[in-house]
Amino acid sequence: MKTNQEKVELLYEKAKEALNNSYSPYSKFKVGAALITKSGKIYTGTNVENASYGLSMCAERIAIFKAISEGEKDFETLVVIGDTEKPISPCGACRQVIAEFGVDEVILTNLKKDFKVMSVEELLPYGFSGEELDDKNTNNR
């Protein structure tokens, strides 16, 4: 069993490897992510751009969507890395996806190994969830 430090180091290295696969010819802004499930499987993602920027996809969402597409639904830790001065911060869309799928812990970092550990609630206070949809449907009955 890996210690928390060993797990974070492994996820950091996996996210850094993913960052190196980034397809970011327009922004030149490379991002990598590594997600570990509660069953111990690791899924990685990197940002993939498109000349039509709206069709681009972030590293965090790719890692989560890969895991979901393989039947995983219980997530422990997501590490996100970028070549930034401070630990990288996910965009709003990624924060919403992270919240939707209940990642327990999000670790933001950079190539200098500065780390910031956050909960989903810290990343996305007052986030939108399926509960709001359930409440609306209940009120219409």
UniProtKB/TrEMBL annotation:
One of its GO terms (molecular function) is cytidine deaminase activity. Residues 6-131 form the CMP/dCMP-type deaminase domain. It is an enzyme of class 3 (hydrolase). CDD domains: cytidine_deaminase (cd01283). Keywords: Hydrolase, Metal-binding, Zinc. The keyword Lipid biosynthesis does not apply. It catalyses: 2'-deoxycytidine + H2O + H(+) = 2'-deoxyuridine + NH4(+); cytidine + H2O + H(+) = uridine + NH4(+). InterPro entries: APOBEC/CMP_deaminase_Zn-bd, CMP_dCMP_dom, Cyt/Deoxycyt_deaminase, Cyt_deam_tetra, Cytidine_deaminase-like. Its cofactor is Zn(2+). It holds the Pfam family dCMP_cyt_deam_1. Its EC number is 3.5.4.5. The keyword Phosphoprotein does not apply. This enzyme scavenges exogenous and endogenous cytidine and 2'-deoxycytidine for UMP synthesis. Belongs to the cytidine and deoxycytidylate deaminase family. This is Cytidine deaminase. It comes from Marinitoga aeolica.
